[in-house]
Each structure stands twice: as C-alpha cells, then as structure tokens.
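Researcher: Please generate the 3D structure of the following complex. Treat every line as part of one assembly.
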Amino acid sequence: MNLKRIGNQTVVFANPPVILSSYSVVGPKEGQGPLSKTFSKVMQDNLNGNKSWEVAESKMLEEALQGAVKQSKVKTEELDYMLAGDLLNQIISANFAARTMGFPFIGIYGACSTMALSMAVGSMLIDGQFARNVLVGVSSHHDTAERQYRSPTEQGSQRAMSAQWTVTGAGSVVLSQSGTGPRITAATIGRVLDYGEKDVNNMGAAMAPAVADTILNHMKDLNRTPGDYDLIVSGDLGQVGLHLAKEVLKRSGMETANQFNDCGVMIYDSSQDVHAGGSGCACSAVVFAGEIMQKLISKQYQRVLLVGSGSLHSPTSALQGESIPGVGHAVVIEA
Amino acid sequence: MNLKRIGNQTVVFANPPVILSSYSVVGPKEGQGPLSKTFSKVMQDNLNGNKSWEVAESKMLEEALQGAVKQSKVKTEELDYMLAGDLLNQIISANFAARTMGFPFIGIYGACSTMALSMAVGSMLIDGQFARNVLVGVSSHHDTAERQYRSPTEQGSQRAMSAQWTVTGAGSVVLSQSGTGPRITAATIGRVLDYGEKDVNNMGAAMAPAVADTILNHMKDLNRTPGDYDLIVSGDLGQVGLHLAKEVLKRSGMETANQFNDCGVMIYDSSQDVHAGGSGCACSAVVFAGEIMQKLISKQYQRVLLVGSGSLHSPTSALQGESIPGVGHAVVIEA
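Model: Done. Output below.
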C-alpha cells in the first residue's frame, strides 16, 4: 500500500484539502486587542444574552460553525462530518453545538491544541476519501475556564505573571476536497511529553518541550528548515513558553528568528493585563481563522506551520500532585 | 474523487483494517460476572496498588494498551498513532497513558461511545493510507466516575433502578493494514440527538434514540436488515435503554430479535446488584475485546455491528438544567 507518511510522524496529503471558509467570534477583551479588525464578530459582553457563561460558550461555537458553513457556500447535506472540541469537562460546548448542527460528529480532545488536531484529522478524512467536506470548530471562554480550572471567576484571584488569559472565542473552518482557498498540505501529529512541570500557572513551560519536539520532527521528516515557512506559529505558548520553545530548538541546533511567533502572544497587547498572553482552544482558532487566513488569502504568507499546543492536565490530576504533560500538533497551510 | 461513502452516514473500507489483537483488564466485580473467563486480566481490587483510583484507571489503560501491542507482535516503531479517550475530565487517563506509550496521540471524546468511535476513525486513518498500524484504547473506572459524575464514592448513595454501574476496566485493540484477524469493513458515525431526557440516572433513555437512529441509517445506507448481522450490540444502553432502542426501531418498522443485545446487559448478571446494567467507555471495550472478538475469531459470529453509545452531558450541564444529548457510533466487524 502506498503510504502517505514521510519520516516518523508526518503525513503529506495527495490531494491537499482546501480551506473554503473561516469564521471567528470573540469576546470584548479580544475585540480590543491588536487583531481586533481580523475577527468576524466581536461580542458586546461575555454572556451575550445567555443565562450562563457555559451556554454562552456553546452558542458562540454554534455561531462560528454556522458562519463558516454559510461563508463556504457548501450545502449542509454535503457536509459529511463535524469535528469539534473545547476545554470544558466532557467537551460539553462542542456536544451541544453538535446537537444543533446535526452533522455526524467526531469529538476531539487535545486541550488547547484541538483546532490544529481537528484540522489534521479532518484533512485525513477528506484526503482518505471518507468525506467531501468537513466542518471543524473549537471554543474556549475565559469565565467558564476560570471557574472550572482555577477559582470561582467572581473571586478575582491574583494571577501569577507566568499565567495566561483564556481567550473567549470560537473559531471554525470548512475543509473541502475541492474549491478555492489555502490548502492543508501536511500534518504532524505530536507525542505527549512531560518534563516534570507541575505549576498550573505556567502552562507555557509545560507545553514548550512538546511543541519544540513536533517542530523538530516535522522539519526532519520533510527535510525542511524554519526558513521554508513564512510563519511558524504555536497555539498558546504565551511569552514564557515561546521563549522556552525557541531555546529548546536552539539547543537542538535549530535557529528560529522572527518567523516563530505564538497566537497567545499575538492576540493581546501588553496594556491588556493578561500577563504571559492568551491561551485556550480559541486562541489559535480565532487567530488562524482571522489574521493568518487573511494573510494566506492575500498571499502575504505562502506557507504557514500552525502548531497547536495542548496542556494535558486536569484540576484533579494537579491536586493529586501529577506533573503536566504537553503535546503539539502541526498542520502546514499553503496559499 | 472516488468516495468511500455510501448513503448519508456510512463509509465502506476499500482495504478493511484487520484487528490484530485485543486485550482487556477489568476490576473484581466484572471478573465475577458472566463474562469472567473472556477477559485478559482481572484485577484483585479497584486500586490495584496505586495511590488513587484515578492513577489506577490510567495504569489499567496502559496495561491494556501494552497487552494489545505485545499480542499484536507489531514493532513499536510501526505503530503510527494511538487513539484513546475516557470519561474523566480532560480525558486525563488517556493523556497519561499516551505519555507512557510515546506514540503520536489523537485524543477522542465520545463519552461511552469512545471505543467504537476510535475504532472507526482509526480504520479511516489506515484505509486512507495515513498509518500502517493504529493502537486504540479506552478506560473507565467505577470509583473515579462515581465521584466525578455523582456523589463522593464513599458516601454510597442509594442508586435509582434505572441507574447503571460504571464498568471498571480498559480495553484495547491494534488495527493494521494487513495481517490475520477479524476486519473492520464499514463505519457509521452518529449524529447527536436529544429527546429532552434530563435524568442523569437514566442515561439509557437519553442514548436510546441516537443508537436507534444510527442503526436505522446504517441499515438504510448499506441496504441491509438486522438479519444480516449475527450480533448487533450497543455499548451501554443497559436494560432500560435497550428496551427503548428496540421500541424505537420497531416503531420505525425494524424488528430486532435476540440478535440485538447490549454490552451493559451482558457484562453483569442480575445477582450483582447493578440495577439497569453496566456503563462506561470500558463496558463495550472489554466486552468487545474479550467475548465478541473470541466469537469472531472462532467464526461463531460472521458479522457484528458494534454501536458505541454515548451520553454527552457533564455534571455542570445537568446542574444547569440542560437535557442530555446522546450519540451512537457504529463499526462493522467481520470474521
């Protein structure tokens, strides 16, 4: 059988799936950040007329999914699968959105790496001839994440300087076997690595080794260097994690300059009091769906490596004294 | 492009992946049930020497994964992906097992349907030529589920008669592009349905409509009838859900007789005080890895439809008054 694998971890698509459309919904804080103009919709407040933050998150995801479907002009009967996930227990935002959307549903959990992971798996389903079109989407919400992972949101606990701010938002793309748009040409699924970091307020440090590992293996598998990409962008390493990932790469003999950036660093500016940057499933999803897609479409970027970064802990595992494993999943998108 | 889809929801594999091996680990209660002799290993107690039930669950999953890998005789460098999930928040059992195993990892969340869903997606990755071999595994644990979803385990709350008992166990299979063993020939990914059931102590009722919907669509897509299967087996509908699913099918004009059974009904006997039967990711996984695989290998079954059933709620969504969406994912396994 003619395998589409190259090296240890990378697959190269025979008929690279097209990203037909992308849609993003964000909260007001994200709407005040430097990428403000790139989002499809900015909500007025984090509840957006709903009775709870959890309902608001799920509705926000629905809105992003519906926005991407509408923009893609794909008929709903030709959308074969929906792949989605989020950070809430039992990925409840995605489950409820899947109930509304009505498509055959594959739930994905990769923590904050879920967008890149779902884009990779969705591309495999299309290139493997199992689907004509696949709908992908993820969400996160500052206030639902805060009370689930940390303290009651209203408590307003003092945050560590290495802590990141969970992005309130949802991002979605429609992948297709044909059409016009940027294409997903390759994917590198990551291994779970754990360097012993136990500080849940420093997820950047927990994820950095896995992100660096995936970038190294990706480049090795495809015999490429960082210079072959206009942008290498991690999902939500934040300031601390991005610095560490660059350092791990440097010590492994791989120099990355300005082309290695992080969605969590890009989405807020320093005046917004988010400390180490943004995080959450939506962080990479809304930056990709807006800023990065727009620059791919305008050909300002020819080739981008999106590396979703996931911190695979739970509040229970942290309380039980376990360290925090990380993972990085990469997809190559070409103009 | 030559699509491998038939009808609305079903894919038929061009080169059906082989199930090279299967391995199951269960707790003592499951080891005292009617399927006792079919499991690979029965633990002496639910902690199995670990400091917490959560650690015990993850270690049990590791053991099942390692057992399946060993039995498959596949070299670890030829295992291209691991797909796994569980019921704990942030699928922490699977994440920690993935850290130990070291394979590129795709986290799946389908609640108790995760085994069938992972087998379906894993088969697509192999048949789509993205992988030579895929390791699939799931776990659940009575004591970790009890305290996460319901009440402190030690409290020993009175259980409703419609409630099910979460299976303590882990099941794993190795799927391969070639070799000897039963083959996965088709898969039907389910839609998320919600008929308004809000009773978290009656998950069978919440899941029954979705399971029936998947069976109906599967038969329609492939132009088959229940008589084309030696066994149609749902994951964990339990006594209540199985009865309801049969009723939904009957009212839709589809008669199922003794060939429609449920892993949650099969795994315990009436003397074991489990009320409506077993549940949990492991319920279908260990019954499939043991009993069903053995009867496929001995050709007692020629063709089986395994329909994983998932209840897609969270304790938070239930407390917020939301109803419980269900899903059913089906795979066809042939001797």
